[in-house]
Design brief:
This protein is of the alpha+beta class. The protein contains 20 helices and nine strands.
Length: 509
């Protein structure tokens, strides 16, 4: 028994001395404040889901620039507008790298996509392609018909279901998440490959591919993000957590087969039309084939478009509708704005969006309360730098807690309440306080497309239908797990077509 106590005391003394050594070393290096950590694993045991809330709690205690150790990786969490501005202005180039993650290495073609690759010539080339060709204002204007048609098909499906279930007169209970996901997915895929993959209007030969693709994308989102072996590499040689790595490899193979099929199909179509300009640069794949990009780069870019443009837009619309159902006075005000600006004989078009400032305020407020990427995308310091007066060593992962900043009572008045009017006339003053698409060089290049999709779909849902809570219960606003912070429970609400919109609009779809 005495030997046991000697062992315990020796171990405790060693850990205490190790802690003092790390604390002294941290002070000498002027690192940001940090909670006590354990050897080897660091602060990993402190991190609970949802991560953005855990990090907010730690930042409230230790300060807006917080240092953590995730196993072998050093992490700095930034949770104030001042520190964020410093990151994305003075240190923007230094912090433009992405940390290497197992999921990106396996499923995103060795981290060569625009969102996962290191900052450098390859990234600049992909960024130029995306900003100046694929998602340029001109290209977005040419793809307007796709967005309008998909929004109209969503309106038609809601109208037909409501009419059938309620006998044409009452409210019908509808589930929105799957509809919004299908709409967003079809918009992206039609821009990428020219084909719809979900809903009633699908080519017979594409049904099997669409089904397999849906399974792959669902698993892809589930497996994306960080893995324990990203922070404790030695574990990768010892254990495969819940078979995650094997599943990643399997998903990557299945995804590659489907994406390669899309490219081969369009390549064959181009060969048949050789000498004609009819199909030139018609889709994203066409543009990249014309640019001489390799198949792997094209496939990676398709996945980037899907990751950035489908779940994020659908989730934002779902959160906005959930908030509106819980606040019928805001819904009423938004509908009055639409009726005054658009009328009752047509659907809102993208050219009308600038006439709808209150709708824009609603979207901003939904993005403030429920940002689609609460921690943005992680950055990594390419060299030593300073943030908030503290040293940030080279190779440190930088996490910007946009969720915490956008709910900070020091930054926002009554921050947890849904108040679209707070954005009235604010304009550019939102910089570094509202960060749904990030900032700096690696800001999301799809922000323009996302704003168009969300605005168009939300305008239609408010303009054409009345919405009520199910059984007079408020819509649950609990957050689920995932990169895009989905609702824990899919939105279900009571839906009814507005009588004034049926004859001239909905019945004509």
């Amino acid at each position: 028994m005495e030997y046991v106590w000697v062992y315990i005391l020796s171990a405790s003394s060693f850990l205490f001395l190790l802690f003092l050594f790390k604390l002294q070393r941290s002070n000498k290096r002027n690192l940001p404040p940090s909670p006590p950590s354990l050897p080897i694993i660091g602060h990993l045991l402190l991190i609970k889901e949802p991560v953005h809330r855990t990090l907010q709690s730690l930042s409230d205690h230790y300060g807006p620039v917080l240092s953590l150790s995730f196993g072998s990786r050093s992490v700095v969490v930034v949770s104030s507008p001042v520190a964020v501005e410093e990151c994305f202005t003075k240190n923007d180039i230094v912090l433009s790298n992405r940390p290497r993650m197992l999921s990106a290495d396996i499923m995103l073609y060795s981290s060569t996509t625009i969102g996962s690759t290191l900052y450098g010539p390859h990234w600049r080339n992909l960024r130029r392609l995306t900003a100046l060709e694929i998602l340029s204002p001109h290209r977005l204007a040419t793809s307007l018909a796709i967005r309008l048609e998909e929004v109209r098909l969503l309106a038609k499906s809601l109208y037909e279901e409501a009419a059938a279930m309620a006998g044409g007169g009452g409210f019908t209970r509808v589930e929105m998440r799957s509809r919004l996901q299908e709409m967003s997915f079809n918009i992206i895929m039609r821009m990428v490959s020219g084909k719809r993959y979900f809903g009633a209007i699908i080519d017979a030969g594409d049904e099997e591919v669409a089904s397999r693709f849906k399974e792959v994308i669902t698993e892809f989102f589930e497996l994306s993000g960080t893995d324990p072996s990203d922070f404790l590499p030695v574990l990768r040689k010892v254990v495969d957590f819940k078979g995650r790595e094997r599943r990643m490899v399997d998903v990557a193979k299945r995804s590659d087969v489907i994406l390669q099929g899309m490219i081969d199909e369009l390549r064959s179509r181009r060969k048949r039309s050789e000498g004609s300009r009819e199909v030139e640069s018609k889709t994203m794949i066409d543009s990249m084939l014309s640019g001489g990009y390799s198949d792997d780069i094209i496939k990676g870019h398709i996945l980037s478009m899907l990751i950035a443009g489908t779940d994020t837009s659908a989730t934002t619309i779902e959160w906005a509708m959930s908030l509106l159902v819980n606040h019928p006075n805001v819904m009423k005000k938004a509908r009055a704005e639409l009726d005054d600006a658009i009328g009752l004989d047509r659907l809102a078009d993208e050219t009308d969006i600038h006439k709808l400032p209150y709708l824009h305020n609603i979207i901003n407020e939904a993005l403030r309360l429920f940002p689609p990427a609460p921690l943005l995308l992680a950055r990594e310091s390419a060299e030593d730098c300073m943030v908030g007066g503290f040293n940030v060593p080279r190779g440190t992962i930088i996490l910007v807690n946009a969720w915490a900043i956008q709910r900070d009572p020091k930054v926002w008045d009554d921050p947890t309440s849904f108040k679209p009017d707070r954005h009235e006339g604010v304009g550019g003053d939102h910089a570094y306080r509202l960060l749904p698409f990030g900032m700096g060089r690696r800001r999301c290049p799809g922000a323009g497309l996302a704003n168009r999709v969300v605005s168009l779909a939300l305008a239609m849902l408010i303009q054409c239908f009345k919405w009520e809570q199910v059984e007079e219960e408020l819509v649950d606003l609990s957050e689920g797990m995932g990169l895009t912070m989905p609702k824990r429970e899919p939105l279900e609400a009571m839906c009814k077509a507005r009588e004034c919109m049926i004859a001239n609009v909905l019945a004509q779809l």
